[in-house]
Amino acid sequence: MSNKTDSNVYTVLFAIGMVVVVGALLAFTAASLKPTITKNVELEMQQNILYAMGVNENDESSANFVSTDVAPELFNKYITKQYVILNGDVTENDEAYLIDIKKEKAKGDASKRRLPLFVGEKDGKTYYIAPIRGKGLWDAVWAYIAMDENMVIQGAYFDHKGETPGLGANIKERYFMDDFIGEHLLDSQGNFKGVAVSKSNADPTNQDKTDNEVDAIAGATITGDGVAAMIKGDLSLYVPYFKNLNK
Amino acid sequence: MGLLSKKDAKLITDPLADNNPITIQVLGICSALAITAQLKASIVMSLSVLFVMGVGNVVISLIRNIIPSKIRIIVQLTVVAALVIIVDQVLKAYAYSLSKELSVFIGLIITNCIIMGRFEAFALGNGPWKSFLDGIGNALGYAVILVIVGFFRELLGSGTLLGFKVLGDPIEKTGLYAIGYENNGFMLLSPMALIVVGIIIWVQRSRNKDLIED
Question: Membrane-crossing residues (chain B) (predicted)?
Answer without folding.
Answer: 43-63, 75-96, 102-119, 131-152, 185-203
